[in-house]
């Protein structure tokens, strides 16, 4: 067991096995007018690693401070105060004295120190027990060992989730209860976006973290759980599901009609979605789109969950606006040329049914002029026009007296049938 010291001073022998030392009361605030002195001795050179320092800051560290003195002559390496993390001091001495002092005001958290005799390899690194699994089901759970009871010391568990190609993983941490430190260096769970530890990290979590939702970019993720030999906790519970990873578009053979829907429609779409689909028509035709069902998280500015429709122009994509909430009556949207793009985004909370839209192809001969009589009025909060479109609508037309939003778009094509 790694040794823990939290008394206000004392004589300590440093071994190759790392030990921890905390200011009194850490991580709660230390008391005023404290003076603590720890004398650390070892057979070899002592290494000090301040995992966290959160002490009242002052010029020259005059008020609250840590002072490290080394060697028989007790040479000061300089006073420490303020806020810093992961500061390592190689003392090159067999004796190190750590002095902590606080004045009568402005108490902070204090400090968290690790120390050991510098032999190059700590016992912690050689005693870790490996564990883990490979999961291939499209839905399942990953937990720390012994969950919901305390996880064991010195664990290093690698769990690979590898589902069928073409699917992605949506993961939700329902419980995270691990030892806390600012850098998540001791006990943590880390998720990699891919099948190896060289894949990009999606996050390292410790403490009582806020429940997180993660979304992979492929059909594989790697979950790594690590614990040291002190301060074990309940652990973590991760639930995962799979989906196809994007907006679903269906097209029947050579038909000119099709549908587009959010992932999992008509069930709730997943959290943390960020996907798009491009609809491209043959030369000489355009894309007509109509939303047949629409239910996204409502928000005045459509910043949480939304679908945004873009018109494909020769020099790029022009936004036709974002939509969210429960859509009211709306005319068909018609691309200027052969392309239309739908982008769907959802945040971490409040998933709804989503949308289903129908599209069909129309010929270029069906194009009509846009005039003021052919604008589309939508209820408030349903559509937020892009700045480009707002610039095209002048004066009082931008926000009329009934506080509706106005979008200029091409009129419904006569004779076009949308299924």
From TrEMBL:
Broad enzyme group: hydrolase
Enzyme Commission number(s): 3.4.24.19
Annotated PROSITE patterns: CUB
UniProt KW keywords: Disulfide bond, Glycoprotein, Hydrolase, Repeat, Signal
Domain CUB, chain residue ranges per copy: 8-118, 131-243, 244-362
Keyword Disulfide bond attached: yes
GO molecular function (one): metalloendopeptidase activity
Keyword Disulfide bond assigned: yes
InterPro entries listed in its UniProt record: CUB_dom (IPR000859), Sperma_CUB_dom_sf (IPR035914)
Protein's UniProt name: Bone morphogenetic protein, putative
Upper classification of the organism: Eukaryota, Metazoa, Ecdysozoa, Arthropoda, Chelicerata
């Amino acid at each position: 067991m790694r040794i823990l010291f939290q008394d206000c001073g004392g004589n300590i022998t440093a071994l190759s096995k790392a030990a921890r030392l905390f200011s009194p009361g850490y991580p709660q605030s230390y008391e005023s007018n404290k003076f603590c002195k720890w004398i650390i001795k070892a057979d070899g050179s002592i290494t000090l690693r301040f995992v966290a320092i959160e002490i009242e800051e002052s010029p020259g560290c005059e008020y609250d401070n840590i002072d490290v003195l080394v060697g028989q002559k007790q040479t000061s390496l300089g006073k420490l105060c303020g806020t810093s993390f992961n500061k390592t001091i190689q003392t090159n001495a067999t004796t190190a004295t750590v002095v902590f002092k606080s004045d009568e005001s402005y108490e902070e958290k204090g400090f968290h120190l690790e120390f050991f005799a510098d032999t190059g390899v700590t016992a912690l690194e050689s005693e870790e027990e490996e564990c883990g699994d490979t999961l291939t089901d499209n839905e399942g759970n990953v937990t720390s060992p012994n969950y919901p009871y305390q996880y064991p010391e010195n664990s290093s568990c690698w769990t690979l989730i590898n589902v069928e190609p073409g699917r992605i993983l949506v993961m939700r941490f329902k419980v995270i209860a691990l030892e806390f430190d600012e850098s998540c260096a001791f006990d943590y769970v880390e998720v990699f976006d891919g099948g190896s530890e060289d894949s990009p990290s999606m996050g390292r979590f410790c403490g009582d973290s806020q429940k997180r939702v993660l979304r992979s970019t492929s059909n594989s993720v790697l979950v790594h759980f690590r614990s040291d030999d002190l301060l074990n906790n309940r652990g973590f519970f991760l639930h995962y599901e799979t989906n196809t990873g994007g907006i679903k578009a269906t097209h029947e053979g050579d038909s000119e009609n099709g549908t587009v829907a959010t992932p999992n429609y008509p069930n709730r779409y997943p959290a943390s979605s960020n996907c798009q689909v491009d609809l491209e028509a043959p030369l000489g035709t355009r894309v007509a789109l109509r939303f047949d069902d629409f239910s996204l998280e409502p928000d005045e500015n459509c910043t949480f969950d939304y679908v945004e429709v873009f018109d494909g122009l020769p020099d790029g994509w022009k936004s036709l606006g974002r939509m969210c909430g429960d859509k009211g009556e709306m005319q068909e949207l018609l691309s200027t040329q052969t392309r239309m793009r739908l982008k769907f985004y959802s945040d971490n909370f409040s998933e709804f049914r989503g949308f289903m839209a129908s599209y069909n192809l129309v010929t270029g001969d069906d194009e009509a002029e846009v005039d003021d009589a052919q604008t589309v009025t939508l209820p408030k909060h349903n559509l937020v026009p892009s700045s480009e479109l707002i610039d095209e609508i002048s004066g009082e037309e931008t926000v009329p007296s009934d506080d509706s939003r106005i979008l200029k778009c091409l009129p419904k094509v006569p004779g076009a049938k949308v299924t």
